[in-house]
Write a structure and sequence with these properties.
three-stranded mixed beta sheet; 19 helices; globular
Length: 425
């Protein structure tokens, strides 16, 4: 009898906990958003969150449309950057127009890829002012590698997605734009709303935008060039930088063929070269897929949920990073950089890989533009910074231990990284 009563009690406790969680998600004071975030890392749950559905069985239907569920969590970006695009708008017409334009701009033909490779090489060669040669007390040249990666990626984004050319006299404006975007992005995530930046008050930021886009009405959310810059540049520079570090200083040291396939793709950026295996399981395609798994451009995707009997919105998060690193899905080497795994994925692993989101909000960069552009830009960095370079921190400490294999770097950590070389070599 005791065991029976204990079992009934456990069941009732479980049901009560579920009821409390259900109530909290569906009932609260009017016109308030929940401050806590409910995270999900299972692939099926992540896909449900992305589409705007609740992964909880028995929870009422989301009364928000899929567009409303996506736009809600991104309103801080609208205020911070003065934008109106598919990520911040609930208007179907605005969303369709944005996706159509972005998709069109991402279509590069054969010769276009060669031109981007030339642009990348030229940009890196021109960034001489980044290399600071110290006085007689030292024999090293120091390069803020994060700034280099940002200018490289933003220059290419401006040329391809914005169809705007920049010359070498504008690289300091490009760097200032990249730094301001990073600063304002961090500010927009502050839990204290009073500390968040407002686009209207960012006068120096406006001046930088005007210097690059002199004929664009930057005060209009509809024509703001940041509508296209943010989703392309912000998702690109960090994975390009992190993949470069992984290949040049970590696993690439033990497996030089990882570096070789990216260098060869940079010199010959074709579909065939991208998929060409240098050795079993080692291709530019596999190397970039593994980079996208360990260092997804968007670590978490947020959606609002509002139940039938509540005016409160609960924030759900599809934890893409955790999904990509799940030991039960990817095996004991889930946290290791292993490009060869991409030649023998099982169905569960294929379903758990979503660096570009999932339907109906699948990023148009997924099929071609995203993976190949990352490969090309990492290859450009590998070609430019070849030998005699070491990784260092802003404090001058040497050692690769600053970055561990497969480890994700946050924005603060990126800002601390420098490349140092002996100029006598």
């Amino acid at each position: 009898m005791f065991r029976f009563l204990f079992g009934i009690g456990a069941i009732m406790a479980f049901l009560l906990a579920r009821a409390i969680r259900f109530y909290r998600c569906n009932n609260s004071s009017k016109n308030k958003a929940s401050k806590s975030t409910v995270h999900f890392s299972d692939a099926k749950d992540c896909r449900a969150v992305i589409v705007g559905r609740s992964p909880f069985n028995g929870m009422s239907k989301n009364t928000l449309t899929a567009f409303q569920a996506r736009a809600g969590p991104n309103q801080a970006l609208r205020r911070a950057f003065g934008i109106d695009n598919a990520f911040t708008s609930e208007d179907n017409a605005v969303i369709r127009e944005f996706v159509a334009l972005a998709t069109k701009r991402m279509i590069l033909h054969g010769t276009d890829w060669g031109k981007v490779a030339t642009l990348a090489a030229t940009t890196l060669e021109t960034l001489g002012y980044f290399e600071q040669i110290a006085g007689n007390s030292t024999s090293t040249g120091t390069v803020p590698i994060t700034s280099v990666a940002q200018v490289l990626c933003l220059t290419v984004v401006l040329r391809t997605i914005l169809q705007t050319d920049v010359d070498k006299t504008q690289y300091k404006d490009v760097l200032k734009l990249a730094e301001d975007i990073n600063r304002i992005w961090i500010s927009s995530k502050s839990p204290d709303e009073e500390k968040r930046s407002s686009y209207q008050s960012e006068t120096p930021f406006h001046d930088t935008l005007k210097a690059i886009f002199p004929n664009t009405q930057i005060s209009s959310p509809a024509s703001n060039p940041l509508n296209l810059i943010l989703p392309s540049f912000e998702t690109m520079w960090r994975i390009v930088l992190r993949t470069f570090l992984e290949i040049n200083f970590l696993t690439g040291n033990r497996s030089p063929e990882f570096k070789q396939v990216l260098v060869e793709f940079f010199h010959n950026p074709t579909k065939e070269q991208f998929n060409q295996e240098l050795s079993p399981g080692v291709s530019a395609s596999n190397v970039i897929s593994e980079a996208l798994r360990l260092f997804p451009p968007t670590r978490r995707v947020h959606r609002h949920f509002q139940g039938l009997s509540s005016n409160e919105r609960t924030l759900f998060a599809a934890d893409i990073e955790a999904c990509h690193r799940n030991l039960r899905v990817w095996g004991s080497d889930a946290l290791k950089f292993v490009p060869g795994r991409w030649n023998c994925l099982n169905e569960q692993q294929k379903s758990s890989f979503m660096p570009f989101g999932s339907k109906p909000f699948l990023c148009p960069a997924k099929p071609v533009f995203g993976p190949r552009m990352i490969a090309l830009l990492v290859g450009a960095l590998l070609c430019h910074y070849t030998e005699n370079w070491e990784l260092s921190s802003v404090s001058g400490k040497y050692g690769i231990n600053m970055v561990a294999e497969g480890e994700y770097l946050d924005r603060d950590a990126c800002a601390q990284l420098y490349l140092v070389r002996d100029i006598r070599v």
